[in-house]
């Protein structure tokens, strides 16, 4: 098996097993998570195909199984399942373990700061494809959240993202050459800022924020829609007799 394959397995294995914990019961939420992952893949897989064909990034064949979808290795498709699964599991688990939404009063301010900084960095780096597209898309999605979605869970999401940063560094570090002589995924640094967190392009952290927020947004929308339907179904009738 390939190195990239085992990175995906390592990322998803513990969350998958613990999903059946009698307290967390995350397996009951899979009916919301899997459509969220599929919908998000419909955005990120074409993006990935285009950026790979442009040479913004690419894959080292010696770390792969050798099966391809267009110009993407099958392990890259697994990535869009394993990582969102593990991260939404973390989001769900922290919601169970930490009842209070500590960042709720600051979520709007955090979002505004992120939108402002990402937009400025995108506009002054239009010629750097990875930087511009990732930063401006993330800023736009956050703006949609503030303007239209107006979710009360953004604070919880930001807390979970802070927890996710440690495994993120390990997984992305493994992919970008932190533990191997050659990386699994290579980047053309002329298309990004050239700033690395260890071996990880800083853009990857923003890419991860967008990927995980999109998954969480759809997951929450489906989950809350179902809960509201249940509440409506169970609401006592007020008709007089």
Mean pLDDT: 94
Succession of helices and strands: HHEEEHHHHEEEH
Q: How many angstroms separate the termini?
A: 69 Å
Unreliable spans:
none
Sequence of strands across the biggest β-sheet: 1-4
Which class best fits the helix and strand makeup? mainly alpha
- What is the count of distinct domains? 1
Helical element count? 7
Described by the principal axes of the CA atoms, the overall outline is globular
- For the secondary structure, the number of strands is 6
Strand content: 5-15%
Main beta-sheet annotation:
2 strands, antiparallel
What does this structure look like?
The protein has seven helices and six strands; from the N terminus they run ααβββααααβββα. The chain has helices at 3-18, 30-54, 74-97, 107-123, 129-149, 154-175, 203-234, and strands at residues 57-59, 68-69, 72-73, 185-187, 196-197, 200-201. The strands form three sheets. It has a two-stranded antiparallel sheet with strand order 1-4. The chain has a two-stranded antiparallel sheet with strand order 2-3. It has a two-stranded antiparallel sheet with strand order 5-6. α1 runs parallel beside α3 (74-97).
């Amino acid at each position: 098996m390939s190195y990239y394959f085992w990175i995906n397995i390592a990322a998803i294995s513990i969350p998958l097993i613990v999903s059946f914990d009698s307290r967390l019961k995350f397996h009951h939420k899979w009916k919301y998570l899997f459509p969220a992952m599929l919908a998000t893949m419909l955005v990120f897989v074409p993006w990935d195909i285009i950026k790979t064909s442009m040479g913004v990034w690419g894959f080292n064949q010696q770390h792969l199984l050798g099966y391809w979808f267009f110009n993407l290795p099958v392990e890259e498709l697994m990535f869009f399942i394993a990582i969102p699964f593990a991260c939404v599991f973390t989001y769900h688990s922290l919601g169970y373990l930490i009842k209070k939404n500590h960042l709720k009063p600051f979520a709007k301010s955090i979002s505004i700061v992120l939108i402002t900084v990402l937009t400025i960095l995108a506009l002054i780096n239009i010629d750097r494809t990875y930087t511009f597209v990732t930063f401006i898309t993330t800023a736009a999605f956050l703006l949609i959240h503030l303007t239209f979605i107006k979710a009360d869970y953004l604070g919880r999401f930001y807390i979970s993202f802070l927890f996710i940063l440690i495994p993120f560094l390990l997984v992305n570090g493994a992919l970008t050459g932190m533990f191997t002589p050659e990386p699994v995924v290579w980047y053309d640094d002329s298309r990004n800022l050239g700033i690395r967190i260890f071996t990880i392009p800083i853009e990857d952290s923003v890419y991860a924020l967008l990927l995980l927020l999109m998954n969480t947004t759809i997951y929450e929308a489906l989950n809350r829609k179902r809960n509201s339907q249940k509440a409506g179904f169970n609401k006592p009738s007020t008709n007089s007799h």
